[in-house]
Structure formats: structure tokens, C-alpha cells
Design a protein that fits this description.
Layout: H1 9-16, H2 20-33, E1 38-39, H3 47-51, E2 59-63, H4 88-100, H5 113-116, E3 120-124, E4 129-130, H6 142-156, E5 161-165, H7 167-170, E6 182-186, H8 203-213
Parallel strand pairs: 2-3, 2-5, 5-6
Antiparallel strand pairs: 1-4
Keywords: Cytoplasm, DNA damage, DNA repair, Glycosidase, Hydrolase
Protein name: Uracil-DNA glycosylase
Domain Uracil-DNA glycosylase-like: 50-211
Length: 225
């Protein structure tokens, strides 16, 4: 499927930023930042969009909200800044990844920019969070924004693999055209739910199998740069 030149992130943002909900969201965020540190840093909030042009999206992995500790969140779902200790969910992701591809050395770098550069769009459902308060920006309007993002991708593409881990991500299921896209679902990789279906889901292996079937380049999940 050929993507129209009008279907770019810049055009998407141009339209979205004019909408009433987004203006309210952005103003509310500015007020919150006056009193408390917000993650990720402002320059990284839309990092996923900067690293993965919409025309190059092959896989969409939907997370919840950013990590809420200093130096962790970098604007990509499940990813942390380089040289940062791995959060529990990301450790579990790497365990499942290693189980999918035991021939490769265990990944230790938690910065997932290399995935983004290969067409893996790493989108959180909520794009910001207040310091040490997970889920604190729920209801500000990010959910509306990311709904529109997912619908946009679903409408202009075919053959995208949407990966939904956990209940919050699964709420996006209805936005995806199941007739032309692939959906992989499991429990969340957090320690509380990873044994309820995430471990053993084989999603990384399934993603590459589907990409190869579509004559697309599979993802090198172990690439660091």
C-alpha cells in the first residue's frame, strides 16, 4: 500500500493541535510542570514520532504511561535512557525476547531507539507522568490523542502488527481494522501479570514471521544502535 504524501506525522499534528481537547491538554500540562517535574522531558514527549516516520511503521507496541522516576522515560513505550537500570517490566520483556531467540546474547541496553529506527512504533497510551506518581496524567486527554494516532495508522496502512500488552493497551483494540491488520495480545509484562500470558506468548518471533510473510524485513531485536 502506497502512503499519500499528505499522510505524515507533521500533517497529523497540524490538525490535532488545533482541536479543543489538545489545547486543553497542553495548557493543563504546562500548569502541572510549574509545580512538579514531569517525565519524559518536553523535548522527548513525542520521541516515538520523531524516530519512526508514519510511512515506515511496521509494528506498533502500545504501552501504558512513562516510567515515573528521574532519568528513565525517553518518550518510547517500555524504553529507558541508555545506561539506566532496567525496570521490572523491561527485564521481563528481555526475558521473553531471549526465550524467543535463544541463539542471541541476552539484551542489556534498555534504550529501544534501535527498534524505532526499524519501524517499531513505541507508543504509550498516556505520554506524560508526574515524578513518582504512576498513572497521574490519566484523564488529561492523552488517551484521546493516542486513540487518534492508532486510528490514523490503521486507516492509512495495511498489514501493520499491533501489539497489545495488558488491559489498558487492549482498550485500543476497537480502533484497529482487524480485516487488514494483525493484532497480538497478552497480559502486561509487569511482575504482577507476566505469568498470566506474557511469558510464552512468543510475540517477538510471531512478529518477525508475519513480517517475512509480507516480504518485509524482520526486526533485529538485539541491535543496540
Amino acid at each position: 500500500m502506497v502512503i499519500s504524501s499528505n499522510c505524515s506525522w507533521s500533517n497529523f499534528f497540524f490538525r490535532e493541535k488545533k482541536k479543543k481537547y489538545f489545547v486543553h491538554l497542553w495548557n493543563t500540562l504546562k500548569n502541572i510542570q510549574k509545580n512538579i517535574r514531569v517525565y519524559p522531558p518536553k523535548k522527548n514527549i513525542f520521541n516515538a514520532f520523531l524516530l519512526t516516520p508514519v510511512s515506515e511503521v511496521k509494528v506498533v507496541i502500545i504501552g501504558q504511561d512513562p516510567y515515573c522516576r528521574f532519568g528513565q522515560a525517553n518518550g518510547l513505550s517500555f524504553s529507558v535512557s541508555k545506561y539506566t537500570s532496567l525496570p521490572s517490566s523491561l527485564k521481563n520483556i528481555f526475558i521473553e525476547l531471549q526465550n524467543n531467540f535463544p541463539q542471541f546474547k541476552m539484551r542489556t541496553n534498555g534504550c529501544l531507539k534501535s527498534w524505532s529506527r526499524q519501524g517499531v512504533f513505541l507508543l504509550n497510551s498516556i505520554l506524560t507522568v508526574s515524578d513518582r506518581f504512576p498513572g497521574s496524567h490519566k484523564g488529561l486527554g492523552w488517551e484521546i490523542f493516542t486513540d487518534h494516532v492508532i486510528k490514523f495508522i490503521s486507516d492509512i496502512h495495511t498489514g501493520i502488527i499491533f501489539v497489545l500488552w495488558g488491559s489498558l493497551s487492549s482498550q485500543k483494540y476497537h480502533l484497529i481494522n482487524k480485516d487488514v491488520h494483525f493484532i497480538l495480545r497478552s497480559s502486561h509484562p509487569s511482575p504482577l501479570s507476566c505469568h498470566r500470558g506474557f511469558f510464552g506468548c512468543k510475540h517477538f518471533l510471531k512478529i518477525n514471521t508475519i513480517l517475512i510473510q509480507q516480504n518485509k524485513t524482520p526486526i533485529n531485536w538485539f541491535r543496540d544502535t
